[in-house]
Write a structure and sequence with these properties.
Its EC number is 3.2.2.21. Helices cover 54% and strands 3% of the residues. It has a two-stranded antiparallel sheet with strand order 1-2.
Length: 216
């Protein structure tokens, strides 16, 4: 299970991180070079599943700054951000927070899935990655990429390889192919040495492009 870290907000870090770093350093020359550059920094998870997914919907196709502004206004509408409370919100109030009609539809569908039990949050710990992805992509506005980011950053699954992520492909290009373009197939070939810790390797690839901590 993830280990909680003391903070004003409960932050969880993976209990497999140290072992993963040792494995990757043994198996992959690029990882052996990258991992020491970032010290003790590692993947972090905070918040609950509904809030994490709602934030992903709000942030779609807009800048990080704009997404934060809209999120702050939206999250302030209910007394507490729960699926049931979101379903009670007025459309006009949600529009007033800066949400488009489509994103309102997505957030309502997300809330309905959680409130009605169509997503089996309590069972996720016993489900494999693809089963969870199948549940999440059934929600309007959530595609495979978002589901994979959720697996990495919220559930902290260790072996997710998001081959549709441009940052991952760009990072593999820079670190393994001298900047030449790479395909999803190339990424899978490189990641053979990363298993069973593809999530950890992906995190370090992202960091190699942007040293700021990756958050979701």
């Amino acid at each position: 299970m993830p280990a909680p870290r003391k903070s004003s907000v409960t932050i969880y870090t993976p209990d497999y991180w140290e072992e993963a770093c040792k494995h990757l350093s043994r198996k992959d020359r690029v990882m052996k070079r990258l991992i020491p550059k970032f010290g003790d920094a590692c993947l972090e998870s905070r918040g609950d599943a509904f809030t994490t997914l709602a934030r992903s919907v709000v942030g779609q196709q807009i800048s990080v700054k704009a997404a934060q502004s809209v999120w702050d206004k939206f999250a302030a509408l209910p007394r507490k951000l729960t699926p049931a409370n979101v379903l009670k919100l007025k459309v006009d109030d949600m529009r007033g927070a800066g949400l488009s009609a489509r994103k309102i539809e997505y957030l309502v569908d997300l809330a309905l899935h959680f409130d009605s039990g169509l997503v089996h949050v309590d069972a996720w710990k016993d489900m494999d990655d693809e089963q969870i992805i199948d549940e999440l992509v059934a929600i309007r506005g959530i595609g495979r990429w978002t589901a994979e980011m959720f697996l990495i950053f919220h559930l902290m699954r260790p072996n997710v390889l998001p081959v549709d992520d441009l940052g991952l492909l760009n990072g593999i290009s820079v670190n393994y192919f001298s900047g030449d373009p790479v395909s999803r197939s190339d990424a899978r070939d490189v990641a053979v040495a990363w298993a069973p810790y593809c999530s950890v390797a992906t995190w370090y690839i992202w960091r190699s492009l942007d040293p700021a901590p990756v958050a979701y």
